[in-house]
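Quick illustration for those who missed Monday's session on complexes.
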Amino acid sequence: MTQAKIESIETILVDLPTVRPHKLAMHTISQQTLVIIRLRCSDGIEGLGESTTVGGLSYANESPESIKTNIDVHLAPALIGMDASNFNAAMQRLDRIAKGNTFAKSGLESALLDAQGKRQGVAVSQLLGGRVRDSLEVGWVLASGNTARDIAEAEHFLDVRRHRIFKVKIGANPLEQDLKHVVAIKQALGDRASVRVDVNQYWDEAQAIRGCQVLGDNGIDLIEQPISRINRAGQVRLNQRSLAPIMADESIESVEDAFSLAADGAASVFALKIAKNGGPRAVLRTAQIAESAGIALYGATMLEGAIGTLASAHAFLTLKKLAWGTELFGPLLLTEEIVNEAPVYRDFELHVPNTPGLGVSLDEERLALFRRR
Ligand code: MUC
Ligand code: MG
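Prediction with magnesium ion bound:
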């Protein structure tokens, strides 16, 4: 077999409406911008990847536009001409020429994996060592900002067997108001659902001490990123005193962050995101650190569309244990699809294709309709 080289890399911004405004502490999403990557190889094979973030620049230090520019100007030129099947050489070159930029790197690594899977006729999960399951439990994020509406949304998803894990977005409102909101949702759903919260770093330590106490006493199962990622000592203290487990999300911006959080004892659960680690292979390094440290795992999202969601899913399928399930619901938050094979959600789970690559292809007409000009 002659060696396939990376011939060209195209990045495409796609703006898609959401099914309802999605209110996070720092930003309300009513339109999500996907960053789609199309990597063409000299053997005619095309790999797809996605480098999507949320909330412009309000969530992380890469925006859709900076991701596109950094790939177009810096990362793609460094990859052109390289062996398309050598993930190690390609990703090590990117790490040499670019600090951080894990979102951009994640989409490129995903595209290389998709292309190689198609080339070999195997699923990306196979390239990652093999899947140990075919589907993943998927939770939903309640973020309408209204208690009655959140409860109605959760009841509906329980009825139609789509979700039974609900993560409530809080942090923007006064503490007592947010706590009342979450406790009311938990009381309405009772034992039929797992209710969790994501504070997106919006509490200070004093608020978090009270917040974690009330939430733990009221049956909330998991508390995600209650305080700033910068306050490591505070995270360690909260992790020691909170009844409900503390999950690190924003605290993990790299595999190295995962190691130091584990070493410090700053969280008992890690949110795994391909975008925060630099790709499906990179996120598995963070998972291995967690496994070695006895830290439990959750398959998290940056609200990617089908491509990024499946890239994450193929990695999560290979893990020994995913104790907290996943939140790979991104495609369900969007009103439009730009792929030919919409991800399959059934009986609380995402069913992941076992076809070559990621198992997804672009619908060129719909892409043309929604791509940014
Ligand atoms: C986050 O902080 O978890 C993931 C799901 C969601 O609703 O927001 C994102 C970001
Ligand atoms: Mg989070």
